[in-house]
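agent> step 3/5: call structure_predict on target 'Monocarboxylate transporter-like protein' (Leishmania infantum).
agent> reason: downstream docking stage needs a structural representation; sequence fetched in step 2, passing through unchanged.
tool.input:
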Amino acid sequence: MQIYEACKKVDRAVTHRPADHWIGYLVAVSGALMQMMSYGIDNSFSIFSNSMQNDPSLGYPSATTVSFGNSVSLGLSPVFGVLAGFLVDRVPPRVMMFTSTVMLFAALWLSSSFAKSSAEVTASYSLLASISSALMLSPGAAATGSWFRRRLGLGQGINFCGGGVGSAVVPAVLGSLVDVYGWRHTFRLMSAFCAIGLVATILSCRRHPIEDDVDVDDHARGGNSPAREPSHDDCIAHRSFSHEERNEIMLMITPEAGENAAASPTTRMIDSMRTEAEKAANHDNGDTLEKGGKPDAAASARAALASPGGSDDMSMLLGRHQQPQQQLAQHGRKVHGTQACTVADLIQDMHVRRLTWREMMRVFFSVRFLTHFFMFAIYGWSFYGLIYVAVPYVSSMGSAGTVYADVTPISTSKASTVFTFWGVFQIVGSILVGGVASFTDDALAYTMCATVGGLATSLLVFCRSYAAFAVCLSVVGFCTAGIFAMMPALIAKDFHGPNLGFFMGCVFVAGCLGGFSAPPIQAQLQTRYNGNYSYGCVFISCCTTFPGVLCYLLLGPEKQSRVGRVFMRVVEQA
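tool.output (status=ok):
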């Protein structure tokens, strides 16, 4: 019992910190380590394709049959990500990361020891690997997002650079091992990378409490008095008004919120109301009674606000004519049991309280959420297709019977090293794009990465030499890392709070569309056009560019384009 209490004290000392604290960078590194382990192993599956096709113990499966295992490992991961997103708001990230590590280790050993067909490889490895990947991604992104506000882009950039590290290190090592030992023995050797997950598990933690847009500078100036996190009761205390009180709103001001508290949105709103009330009180001094001799409610509220001890009063009433309609809706007020708030108001409420299932469904069908969802769904076709096709495309140079028969051959072991360039530039892209986004705008960084990445993938059509592939894939790796770093940052900015993990997991489930369908699509395009990968590269280029167009048009109302504003008006009117 004493050990448990000591652990709780240590955990409280570590996790109860202001936003943008240096501990957050360690948490981001833990997420990077998990992604290094998981994506490094998962993205290497295509390297084993030739070895599995030529394995008599598997019955010599076809390329399309082997690609189905890759589809399951990548495509089912976002589906399980919904469950992971639901759990990440309720289960410590360490528990989920440890479970992820154990499942990936088990998947490698079970498949390499007992699989006798391609279907058994899919069941023993791909299925467990997809669950492992889901349990890794959401906890790391949500835990990192809880530690940052102003430097959220940089934090998520560090978190997502792990995929680049894994892509740079793991495939390069496995490409040489599989030619010597075969896929089974290499799978067992690959399980040693799971030790990285144990280190990441120790470093990961979530910041508590999750504050609503805490200003770190105010924390430093305000001494040791942290802002009280708004509770569920604070958000809904004003909802149960009688018919006579419909024109008034109750604001609960607690004694804990002293002068040294951080400037949360609620505090800033109250301060502005206090200033207006002081002006009104000075102007209408003495005029506080109605004709019947009863005190005017609005005047009493203004006097309470203007008084020096007003913040310690139990409640203060404001006239409805002084409270804008948007503020009433923002607090989700109910009139005669009818919900009066809009979807935009629910998105504001979700920053400080858990939404009900009915409220979640309203947010799910909002333009804001669907924009995030389809951005990731379309990009999934690009990313997962590129992961599957990169090494086979490079190694097809010089293959007889294809359009590349007259090109200088590139071996599979050498082709696998292009992921080294991909991975190195993913590391640079995650950190650099995340840092730039912290000083500019996340949506702008996402749009630029999608545009440049789409152009670079289209240039893959013209590549014939190893150097050309290395240059193009380096640019593509840089841009894909930036996109992956900005996506959770954009999600966290729109849906941060107690519901973040669940909504982030629901957005990531869109990736199952690309994860399941992209490898078979690429395999069919290659077969249909006599081993020509050009058509697949054009498809990947379009799927990389279009999410950037959606981001430019619809994300960030204050920076929304003219076309985006017209589209939003049409949707709202409909």
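agent> step 4/5: record observation. The longest helix spans residues 118-147.
agent> proceeding.
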